[in-house]
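Suppose a colleague, Dr. K., hands you the sequence of a protein chain of 88 amino acids and asks what its three-dimensional shape might be. Before reaching for any lab equipment, you can write down a predicted structure in token form. Begin with the sequence itself:
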Amino acid sequence: MHSDYALNLMSDLFWTGLLICMPVLGLTMLIGLMISVFQVVTQIQEMSLTFVPKLITAALTLIIAGPWMLRKLTQFTVKLWTNIPAMF
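The predicted structure, expressed as tokens, is then:
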């Protein structure tokens, strides 16, 4: 395997992983930020107030974006498996 091919493959791997994780991480971070602002304004420091909405957001995001995420991961895997002969 050539070094430029390995670097390109690693780049594709990281970008695909980032693209797949971004909807869940982005939305839970946004909800966490909104809950933190709400806690600062109201001075309510309850731990379940931060955990439960983020958990629900992550579950709903996986339900809604799950097929798209699985399709992207499958496309990357198929591309990887079909390019195995070109690696050697």
